[in-house]
Write a structure and sequence with these properties.
Length: about 350
């Protein structure tokens, strides 16, 4: 089929590109899932909404990922008419929006989708909160952080009290407000800059309607930015606890190996990264004794690319497995950057490589 400006539709699990002319495919199938990658595709799709009312009820899933807004369109006028067309998608259940060119749309889509169940956003702006707050039937929210001023992360948001919410992933200030009154047991938190006030968020999580059992911590800057001791103090009944570095941070794998390579000429750089990681490890080791039911612990971006065989003989990781297993008897599985180790037997502190 011919391409049509980057607009693709999902049909029975297969990707098809839409050609805007008569097609002998039911609208309810052809428009069920729509993926838009350009302003031209968005304009054509909105035109089809305006010309065919059946489309409004057909679309269940919509993805808009526009990196750059096309300057050929009059943004101040055109974007409002496009948003008005999109707001007619009365049966939309899943909405995903990414790309800097898509940001302005979010502010114009408040209260647009009465049946929305899932919202994924590749950015956080000042329009994120009002959009979420207007869609009270949401069950899943996944919002990635953006380059916002530090004081914005310390913003005190009113609790959302969304009873239908089951899964939350987002910046700490937003996650803390979303968890209140929800039914979520799984939470992924992007912790803010070093001066972010952690306690209000953790207090909200600790007071959640249902005890949070699974907590993933994504760090925006350094390993020791995360309040490990506070987490252990306020959430001692966690079953799954994970940590990873947000891509683009200064201690991800790329930076780690770059620092290691340059360590002969700039030993202070390697030492700085190592000290931060070591401080995090010390805090985590001291905090593990507080967890009463913890079964799974993972460090997803642990800065090492060694293979499984090399890992098994890594003395530092071996020491950590024994130290953590001793501090937390309920622990059954430990993961270092995708390499899993399982406790051999209940009551013993022996760990086997899971292949």
């Amino acid at each position: 089929m011919m391409s049509s400006g980057g607009l693709s539709l999902s049909l029975d699990g297969f990707a098809h590109e839409l050609v805007f002319h008569d097609i002998d495919i039911p609208v309810s199938l052809m428009y069920k899932s729509v993926d838009i990658r350009s302003t031209r595709a968005l304009a054509k799709f909105c035109q089809s909404i305006d010309e065919n009312p059946d489309v409004c009820a057909a679309v269940k899933r919509l993805i808009i990922n526009i990196p750059i807004w096309n300057e050929d369109l009059d943004e101040n006028v055109k974007i409002r008419s496009l948003a008005q067309s999109l707001s007619r998608l009365s049966s939309l259940e899943k909405f995903e929006i990414r790309g800097s060119g898509s940001m302005t749309l979010l502010a114009l889509l408040t209260e647009a989708f009465p049946d929305l169940r899932s919202f994924i956003s590749g950015f956080t702006t000042r329009d994120t909160e009002p959009f979420i707050r207007a869609h009270r039937r949401l069950e899943r929210v996944h919002v990635q952080p953006a380059e916002l001023p530090g004081d914005f992360f310390n913003k005190d948001l009113r609790p959302f009290h969304f009873e239908s919410l089951r899964y939350i992933s987002g910046p700490a200030f937003l996650a803390g407000a979303l968890i209140v009154g929800s039914r979520a047991r799984s939470l992924a938190v992007y912790w803010g800059p070093p001066d972010y006030h952690h306690k209000p968020t953790l207090q909200c999580i600790a007071r959640s309607t249902l005890p949070v059992e699974n907590l993933s911590n994504i760090m925006s800057g350094h390993w020791n930015d995360i309040p490990v001791k506070e987490i252990a103090k306020r959430l001692p009944r966690l079953r799954t606890l994970g940590f990873r570095i947000c891509k683009g941070s200064n201690v991800d794998d790329q930076s780690w190996h770059a620092a290691r390579k340059a360590s002969e000429s700039m030993p202070h750089k390697m030492m700085k990264i190592t000290n931060r990681l070591q401080a995090f490890i010390q805090d985590l080791t001291a905090a593990l004794i507080r967890f009463q039911r913890l079964e799974t612990l993972s460090l997803v971006d642990f800065p090492d690319k060694a293979g499984p065989v090399e890992r098994a003989s890594n003395q530092e990781e071996l020491r950590l497995r024994h130290s953590w297993g001793s501090a937390c008897p309920s622990l059954k599985e430990i993961t270092f950057s995708g390499t899993r180790y399982g406790r051999s037997r209940v009551g013993e502190n022996l760990w086997d490589l899971c292949i």
